[in-house]
Design brief:
Structural class: alpha/beta
Number of helices: 14
Helix content: 25-40%
Number of strands: 14
Radius of gyration: 22 Å
Shape: globular
Strand order of the largest sheet: 2-8-7-6-5-3-4
Distance between the termini: 82 Å
Length: 411
């Protein structure tokens, strides 16, 4: 008789792969979930955590979705890269807003901006390839880079330089394994916006080094104080076909829950990303694609109205935080976040507690005054807190008042 095949006890294998186990939970979504859970339990929590406009999606977009849902053709599969009419509209919108001309075949419609970010890195990176990551960064970027096998190289710019990295800093971080520069303006989490001159200089430097540039333009319409948005793809035409734009409808049109984003790039990259998406998720839901078509083809009236409220809240929260001894809050020129430097509060007495890190401080704030904020550890070094001011005026005022009451007693 032949010997029975040997078996390896399943207990010798990890239950979760090392690749997935290494991914950190989204800190911003975790803070938002905790705040919402406390609210559901009846607690008067003020949430500064999530980057989510408190406005309803414009009615004409909702009506477009309702009409689309009634049509049986939209109940079927559609092309993995997106509906042709939406891809065409995104190309036209990109020319209108970024001054960058692309063919619809260079567009892939994705399930939100996060999928666009991941697919871009998964398509461009091989194991060990490096990505220059200006810091503070959005929490998803380093996780998407690592999941694709890449290595994030953090390049930190603090409040003393407006949270804007310089070419000299990028040059110092560059190695022979560096393949990509990630460029984000306006920025999450800081609200920082690069000037046209800074954008051009960084883009030209990247082109001279033979780097790819991945640029996230999702906050393109949210700038203040007459500060312009500048697309690096347009500012530095020297980049040629080594630039990928990621974007979506979430922030401009208050459509965070609709989950429609896109990536724009050279045709070989777009085809590869489409192949990946065809196996991962196939097409984005047709109903939301048609809602997005109404959004990007329509006017920008809604975002202009939101900007009036965001600008008012921006000024109020900056003034309120800077009134606290030990807090330094630069005035951001984009997005809907402030990134406060709270290093002056660390180690000081706060009602018998001394916090050594911004993570400890954020936990104390939630525990003592029921205000949810995101600590700097989620975005880079400790010592900072991110506040989203995309919440109602009354909640913002009450949240700042609670912070002043607690943190103003630091000694």
């Amino acid at each position: 008789m032949s010997a029975a095949p040997s078996t390896v006890p399943s207990a010798t294998f990890p239950r979760v792969s090392a690749r997935i186990a290494a991914i950190a939970e989204s800190a911003t979504l975790a803070v938002d979930a905790k705040a919402k859970a406390l609210k559901a339990a009846g607690r008067p929590v003020i949430g500064f955590g999530a980057g989510e406009p408190d406005f309803a999606t414009p009615a004409y977009i909702v009506e477009a979705a309702i009409d689309a849902a009634r049509q049986p053709k939209n109940h079927r599969y559609s092309p993995a890269a997106g509906l042709p009419e939406l891809r065409s509209a995104i190309a036209a919108k990109t020319l209108r807003d970024s001054g960058y001309a692309v063919d619809p075949s260079q567009v892939v419609v994705t399930n939100g901006g996060k999928q666009a970010v991941y697919e871009t890195f998964a398509t461009l990176l091989d194991p060990g390839d490096e990505v220059l990551l200006p810091t503070p960064f959005w929490t998803t970027y380093p996780e998407a880079i690592r999941l694709a096998g890449g290595v994030p190289l953090e390049v930190f710019a603090g409040p003393e330089q407006g949270y804007l990295v310089t070419v000299d800093q990028l040059e110092a971080a560059l190695t022979p394994r560096t393949k990509i520069l990630l460029f984000v303006s306006p920025s999450n989490p800081t609200g920082a916006v690069y000037s046209p001159e800074q954008t051009r200089e960084i883009g030209q430097w990247a082109a001279a080094k033979g780097l790819w540039v991945v640029t996230d333009e999702i906050y393109e319409h949210l700038t203040y104080d007459d500060v312009p948005f500048t697309s690096i793809a347009t500012a530095a035409p020297e980049l040629g076909d080594r630039v990928v734009i990621v974007n979506g409808v979430a922030k401009t049109y208050a459509m965070t829950g609709w989950r429609v984003g896109w990536l724009i790039g050279p045709k070989d990259v777009v085809q590869a990303a489409t192949n990946l998406q065809s196996h991962a998720t196939s097409n984005v839901a047709n109903i939301t694609q048609l809602a997005a078509l109404a959004a990007v083809s329509g006017p920008l009236t809604a975002v202009e109205e939101m900007k009036v409220a965001f600008d008012r809240r921006r000024k109020a929260i900056v003034a309120g935080l800077n009134a606290i001894d030990g807090v330094v809050c630069p005035t951001p020129h984009g997005a809907f976040y402030v990134y406060a430097d709270v290093r002056g509060l660390l180690g000081r007495d706060l009602g018998g507690v001394r916090c050594a890190t911004s993570a400890e401080l954020a936990a104390l704030i939630l525990d003592k005054v029921e205000v949810a904020v995101v600590p700097g550890e989620a975005f880079g070094p400790s010592g900072f807190l991110r506040f989203s001011y995309a919440l109602g005026d009354d909640d913002l005022a009450e949240g700042v008042r609670r912070l002043q009451d607690l943190l103003g007693r630091a000694s």
